[in-house]
Amino acid sequence: MYCLLSPLCACPEMETEEQSKVFQRSLKSVSLVTLTFQNGALTLVSRYARTRPGNMFFSTTAVVMAELFKCVSCLFIIMGQEGGIRPWARRLNEDVFQQPYDCLKISVPAVVYVIQNNLLYVAISNLDAGTFQVTYQLKILTTAVFSVILLQKKLSKIQWVALVMLFTGVAFVQFKPESTSEKVSTEQNRLLGFGAVLLASALSGFAGVYFEKVLKTTKQSLWLRNVQLGFLGVVFGTVTIFLSTDGQKVRDKGFFFGYDMVVWAVVFLQSFGGLLVAVVVKYADNILKGFACSAAIVFASLASVYLFNFQLSLQFVIGACLVCISVFMYGYQPKEKTQSNLQAQGEKI
């Protein structure tokens, strides 16, 4: 009562609540800035790692290492939530090892994500950073389509307009003079890169919607699901290595052939991205998340000018602007109608 009567009294409950709000606002700002940097930096560092001269690492092994890092990180997060090793081990035993059928359901997006991430390496090896970053936003379109098909979700008129604008913007980016291409040390196949990013976008949309459906129909937490995804990703990714042309090369030269600080940075940024999106989803919203994606496009495009001698064309600028605007338009909707499937698909690269 004294807290209510005295304006000079600092009520502990009010202070705690205010401190919590300040912390959440700060965390939201920091997470959005970090997400922007992570999205742009991953594209730029991956592009540099795949086009520089010297010993080239095997991208299939990098996919496996990113999944392993993500799995281990989520295990530590769950341990912190459970408050100790014993309850942590009990939770894993009850929700993972004793439910093989449940893990079987997660194997579907796990396989798809492994294929998708390998395709992204093909794409970034053959497309300049700006074009890749813009074109990969087609995952918003594929996610929307699969949401309508698999989840019977209804999109607003402004969202459909945004999707058309997105497709138009990507089309603009593809038609640019050859003189605007980057100067790189490896042979490029633009058509192969475009095909790879198109297929990766389609797989991202399907896996994201499927994963959302699993999250909504089961009781396991997002972190536990990421542990399952990461573990199965390591298994399927390892199988992929030895089924691909990299298999014999890995046997001859070793799993970590070509690895250096740049490659480890790619692995870290890729694994860190999924965890970061989970924080953004918790403390921000789709509009702010869209701002981060749009800012990352601008960041990657401008950085490419200085890092890779990329020349911006009028078509590219128009296309990139259309894509950025479409991302904003798609996320601009009442909170109760927010498309949570975009949260699920954002957890993977």
Automatic annotation (TrEMBL):
Protein name, UniProt field: UDP-N-acetylglucosamine transporter isoform X1
InterPro entries: EmrE-like, Nuc_sug_transpt
Similarity comment text for this entry: Belongs to the nucleotide-sugar transporter family. SLC35A subfamily.
Membrane topology: Multi-pass membrane protein
Pfam families noted in UniProt: Nuc_sug_transp
GO CC, alphabetical: Golgi membrane
Species whose genome carries this gene: Lingula anatina
Keywords per UniProt: Golgi apparatus, Membrane, Sugar transport, Transmembrane, Transmembrane helix, Transport
TM spans (from-to): 57-79, 134-151, 158-175, 191-211, 223-242, 262-281, 288-308, 314-332
Alphabetized GO MF terms: pyrimidine nucleotide-sugar transmembrane transporter activity
Domain of life: Eukaryota
Gene name of the record: LOC106172206
Record-linked PANTHER family: NUCLEOTIDE-SUGAR TRANSMEMBRANE TRANSPORTER
Subcellular location(s) per record: Golgi apparatus membrane
